[in-house]
Design brief:
Blueprint lengths: L7 E6 L5 E7 L4 E9 L5 E6 L15 E7 L5 E8 L5 E9 L5 E6 L5 E3 L8 E4 L5 E4 L1
Antiparallel strand pairs: 1-2, 2-3, 3-4, 4-5, 5-6, 6-7, 7-8, 8-9, 10-11
Length: 139
């Protein structure tokens, strides 16, 4: 027996060719649907689950996941917020910290008390040379 599943994916873009809607349908039903919003420089600021909206009767039993992203003045991701109705309308926020040369130093999750540091061997260093030609390292 051969089972052939046909999925159809449709995408729409804004005038700057940024993805703003993605929908995937199977042979008999919609499988996923997402709406994307961007800031003025093109960073994604939110992703909304269109298939499982709060008004949907299935939403309480299915994954309704929405995401919001926050950036700093240098366009670095500083916070990600994920909301899911599948886990009693829980919200997880992940915060990021950076060093002076934009390496991620830590990620902190609101769901855990644990701060996940980036191992020092994975952090690049910036070397500067002063007028006396002696190297200085900055982390």
């Amino acid at each position: 027996m051969i089972i052939l599943t046909l999925n159809v994916q449709s995408k729409t873009y804004d005038s700057l060719l940024r993805l703003n809607h993605l929908e995937t349908s199977g042979t008999s039903e919609q499988l996923q649907g997402f709406a994307y919003q961007h800031d003025r420089v093109g960073n994604i600021v939110s992703i909304d689950d269109l298939l499982h909206s709060d008004s949907d009767a299935v939403a309480s039993a299915a994954l309704n996941a929405n995401a919001n992203y926050t950036y700093d003045a240098w366009y670095r991701l500083v916070a990600s917020e994920f909301t899911s109705s599948a886990i009693s309308n829980s919200t997880e926020t992940i915060n990021y910290t950076y060093n002076s040369i934009d390496n991620i130093l830590s990620r902190t999750s609101s769901m855990r008390k644990l701060i996940v540091p980036i191992p020092p061997e994975n952090i690049a260093t910036e070397t500067t040379v002063d007028t006396q030609n002696s190297a200085k390292e900055k982390i």
